[in-house]
Amino acid sequence: MNAGRAETMGNQSSIPGWLAPLNILRASVYLLGITFTLYTIYYAYSLFFIRLRYSNLFVGMGIALFYLDYVHKHYEASDEKNNVADDSTGGSSSVSNVIGTLRSVAHRIDPLVAVGLAFLALWSTAYVELNFSRLFYDAPVVGYTETDLLIGVALIALAVDATRRAFGNIIATVTVGAILYAHTLVGPRMPGVLRHTGMSWEQIARDGAIGLTGVYHETLMGIGATWVAIFIMFAGIAKAYGLMDFVLEAGREVGSSLRTGIVQVAVIASMIMGSITGSAAANTATTGSFTIPMLKDQGVRDDFAAAIEGVASAGGQMLPPVMGVAAFLMADIIGVPYVDIIRAGLIPAALFYFSVGIGIHFAVLKFGWTTERLTEFEPRILLQGIHFTIPLGVLLYTLVILRFTPLSAGMYTIFTIMLVVPVRNVLVDGASNETIARTVKQTVDGLYQGGVEMAPLVGVLAAMGVIIELLTQTGLAQRVSTLIVGLGGGSLLVVLLLAMLASILFGLGMPTPAAYILVVILVAPGVNAMNVPEITTHMFVFYFAMLSAITPPVAISVAVGSRIAETSFTRSCLQALRIGAPGFVIPFAFVTNNSLIYWSLPMTLVTFPLVLTGTIALTAATVGYDGSRRLGYRHRGLYIVLACGAMFGPAIHIAVQATAAAAILVLLLLSNIKSISQLPIPIKN
């Protein structure tokens, strides 16, 4: 251990290494992460508590794990920070020295505060567990004690602070704003539709947490602690077993056989990982650290590289069968089997990713970022990861065929991968002590990684539960929906446009699940009032909540990508909007063509290819290229008109839709006949 860390953690030379504070902290995080994952898996297996009681212990462990991991990462980076601080303050003025000293003090105190908050989280949820029967059965009738209310305040404060540290100030500020808005000092003084009678701090503490609502919201925390957690933990285990490494390695091999190179592989890798992780920003940071440098090496401009990864990562949240966190919440809110959400999301996801894939293909050809060093694809590379198809097959079989709950399906998938990978290791590498030790380490690391990746979401789910509970209790949710219908003046298009704007605005800077929940409570009832079917409504707002990750001025997915690519955030946002532009139109298409959501024969088989054709035309117009030539404004305008006909024709007549789609295909075919004949033939090395 170097001097910088020794100074930060105290002089540890006189005590055994395993008793050093940093080592104790590291071990605590590791053990708590493993325990957190095993606790979730064991609940999925045994269902030993009612879900609400299980969720309480889940909240305590999750928030405590997040804080301890936060402190651990703080000290892991302390050497670099101390060195930078020493270099920057050398020879500076006395004022700078004072400022530097204050920052140093804050830098040292903050981890101690975080450790204290971790213990507060464990103690508060232990209190709820020990008093659960009284709080669940008696307190709503006889009332809550002062200690109960203080514990409620502590839980709300923990949710706000953990959210601030994990996801920044936006959601934390919204949570604090909801609390202030609910209070009697603010609510009765608000104008017009915002006015309400107000709630005392005791009512806020009750409805926000200790009444076993708010922080323990039945949908948000109930689904988050079960359906969501089991899949995020599966993602952590799968990554430890090498799933991501295999996807990227296979991607490189596929990219070497395509004229457009690695770009489509970046899209596919982000699709797969985004579906499992359910976080646009985390997916961009994870896969983008590999794919963006590869894109730049191929010659793709840095702002396009950031945009490609950002858009692809954002869309992964709608890709079945997992579809990220928000889809699990959707199934519970609507009250339908999760397989119905999978079916409803399949065609919209296909439309989105096909438009993104075509848009990127056109952009690469337009700017000449192709590669001529083509090699024949080597199928043997796929055999290296063929064992991963077994747990993924179990996931599909249990979810789609057997129709198990996501909790049970996720549990069986975890059990399968933890059985398949050790068998594969023994068969491929031999039953040596080294193989066994490596496999055990992979498994333990996976359990730890699953818990650590879930922990930051616990705080934001708790904070969103507080927001939703308070907005519902004040009546704001109902009044906003009525206001949207009133502003729409009976026009479905206007109501949908207002819902789109609200979904994007509420989603700026927020994770998609948080944005989706907020919009569903405030906006979706207004859309439903216009006779739009319920799943279609939820898919509509979910789609735009997802797209907020690439929408300026926040565009969190693009922001992460632009940092990795070391390029302008503004230029990256512009390119992301260009690539993802069809995504902002597709939700209106499946409202018009409802058979894309609620499958029906033969209409689904007819409308899907017609809308898909319109999506291609819209992509060509936004990129300004149709596969063989750059498009002027007149050609772009023609493609946009035809795209609208192909995507929204049923509003007039199905014949209009079919005619527009046929015209698009003729234009594309005539334009690309020459370029198709000139494609190079791959050469085998």
TrEMBL record:
Keywords: Membrane, Plasmid, Transmembrane, Transmembrane helix. The lineage of its organism: Archaea, Methanobacteriati, Methanobacteriota, Stenosarchaea group, Halobacteria. InterPro entries: DctM, TRAP_DctM-Dct_fused. It comes from the Archaea. It comes from Halalkalicoccus jeotgali (strain DSM 18796 / CECT 7217 / JCM 14584 / KCTC 4019 / B3). The chain crosses the membrane at residues 29-48, 112-130, 142-160, 167-186, 220-241, 262-282, 318-339, 351-369, 381-402, 409-427, 447-471, 483-508, 514-533, 540-560, 597-625, 637-670. This is TRAP-type transport system permease protein. Residues 187-598 form the TRAP C4-dicarboxylate transport system permease DctM subunit domain.
